[in-house]
Design goal:
There is one protein chain. The chain has 133 residues and is mainly alpha-helical. Helix content is 71%, strand content 10%. It folds into two domains: 50 residues, no CATH class; 81 residues, no CATH class. A hairpin with a 2-residue loop joins strand 1 and strand 2. It is flat. The chain has a two-stranded antiparallel ribbon.
Length: 133
């Protein structure tokens, strides 16, 4: 093995973070973390694995909305604050609609199980009843 080949092989064994990581975060969306856009790509990968960018932004938005409303009320005069609160309300509505759609999907799935697999239906129905207490 030539010295340069040996050196490349040896370095690749000790590499901790990938040169480029592409991770699907939503269907049709890709998150790229690499040494060009992050000073610590491996750390960023670990953070995103624990708390997605969406979760991070959601929590910051919740905190900022609370601060704005505490200081300026629910209808602030400053257009920037008003625009932010409007955007947050629109995002919250999307989340609520998505949650409702997921529950409606569960209702349809239960109806299918009731018609096709009574034992599975009863088990899951009872588990849902217990969870809702």
């Amino acid at each position: 093995m030539a010295p340069d080949e040996w050196m490349r092989a040896w370095q690749s064994m000790w590499r901790v973070a990938p040169d480029n990581l592409a991770q699907s975060i939503l269907q049709g969306w890709t998150l790229n973390i690499n040494s060009n856009n992050s000073t610590a790509p491996q750390t960023e990968v670990e953070v995103v694995a624990k708390h997605s960018y969406g979760r991070q932004l959601g929590r910051m938005s919740d905190a900022l909305a609370l601060l704005i409303e505490a200081r300026h009320g629910r209808t602030p005069e400053d257009k920037r604050f008003a625009d932010f609160l409007t955007m947050k309300q629109e995002i919250d509505k999307v989340k609520q609609d998505a949650a409702a759609a997921r529950v409606e999907r569960i209702v349809k799935d239960l109806a299918l199980l009731k018609a096709q697999d009574q034992e599975q239906y009863v088990r899951l129905r009872d588990a849902l009843r217990e969870a809702l207490k």
